[in-house]
Amino acid sequence: MKLLVTGGAGFIGSNFIRYWLEEHDEDEIINFDKLTYAGNLENLKEVQENPNYSLVKGDICDRKAVDAVMKNVDTVVHFAAESHVDRSIQDAAPFIKTNIEGTYILLESALKNNVQRFHHISTDEVFGALDLDTEAKFTDKTPYDPHSPYSASKAASDHLVRAYHDTYELPITISNCSNNFGPFQFPEKLISLAITNFLEGKKVPIYGDGKYVRDWLYVEDHCRAIDLILHRGKVGETYLVGGLTEDISNLEVIKKIVSIMKKEENMIEYVKDRPGHDRRYAINSGKIRETLGWEPQYDFDHALELTVNWYKENPEWWKNVKSGEYKEYYKKQYA
Ligand code: NAD
Ligand code: TYD
């Protein structure tokens, strides 16, 4: 395969590129990335000399640049996005631009260049919020009901991807996954922020009552799911990926990290809630399990320990990331 990976310098994209070159050493990857605050070439040091890997710095909203890299690839894996809910609340503009317009430009180019598969990475947040203390879970039939500018922009991109399949027969697949965690995650998301704050001796901010529920997915298990979808998934289908945890609250997640890192619970600080905060996400991953044989290979506690150890062993990575622009963002978000 010759893959065009968009957003490959980000958290999941870089884990995916390292995974793919390891598992499929005959395949070639072009990583097309704008290198925003979230894109970091340090994430790809391990593969930068690999002859099957190349980087093109560019913006998915730049039609010419996209057309140039789309030539001679057979598969697109589209990760590039503005990905953080809190930043979308501060300023929705880059979310609308990259997530909606950028996806449209990629779809046009993929169609023009007869790409054989366009795989779109999306999120369970497009389905909105579930109530606490119910058995309800998202499936690929759940109606869309996004609440943040981030999730609304991802929902719009999903609709566009499906429209290009239904209207122009572009061979697409979509995966909507739950909250990822693992090595190389930018420390603005809950788990990576908590671990690095504890390592710095700082408190961890918990929004509202802390009783919000996310469905957690270890990033390597996510990469394996995308592999299965690219090789065996059915064109036009949507797969939901997640289901590692059963209704664990943010507070319980942070308490687990407190215990792994031998910290004190008084290092948890309740702060102002996020506006429009979705109460609960839960994924029914039955479809990908039954049709493609996917299942998570890590249990949550073990994956959390691996993640804590990775941040402990790579202080230069996160200290570098937490300098500069991050400081401004943190001040504004947690003032
Ligand atoms: P990330 O923020 O870590 O990385 C995003 C990458 O996209 C960065 O390398 C950035 O430079 C690049 N990028 C941003 N705008 C671009 C543009 N205009 N042109 C080219 N490149 C651009 O994101 P992530 O956490 O790795 O998420 C990857 C994808 O997975 C996103 O589409 C996100 O919506 C989706 N997703 C993430 C999670 C999660 O828990 N992280 C959960 C569900 C879905
Ligand atoms: P986050 O990692 O931002 O992912 P998402 O909003 O996409 O689910 O947040 C995960 C959960 O943790 C969410 O309920 C918000 C909460 N949260 C906090 O309580 N404190 C924080 O500092 C952050 C970043 C998130």
TrEMBL record:
Q: Does the keyword NAD apply?
A: yes
Keywords per UniProt: Lyase, NAD
Q: Which reaction does it catalyse?
A: dTDP-alpha-D-glucose = dTDP-4-dehydro-6-deoxy-alpha-D-glucose + H2O
Which Gene Ontology BP annotations are present?
A: nucleotide-sugar metabolic process
Entry's SUPFAM superfamilies? NAD(P)-binding Rossmann-fold domains (SSF51735)
Residue stretches in coiled coil: none
Q: Which GO terms describe its molecular function?
A: dTDP-glucose 4,6-dehydratase activity
Enumerate the cofactors the protein uses.
NAD(+)
EC class = lyase
Q: What family does the database annotate?
A: Belongs to the NAD(P)-dependent epimerase/dehydratase family. dTDP-glucose dehydratase subfamily.
Name of the molecule in the record: dTDP-glucose 4,6-dehydratase
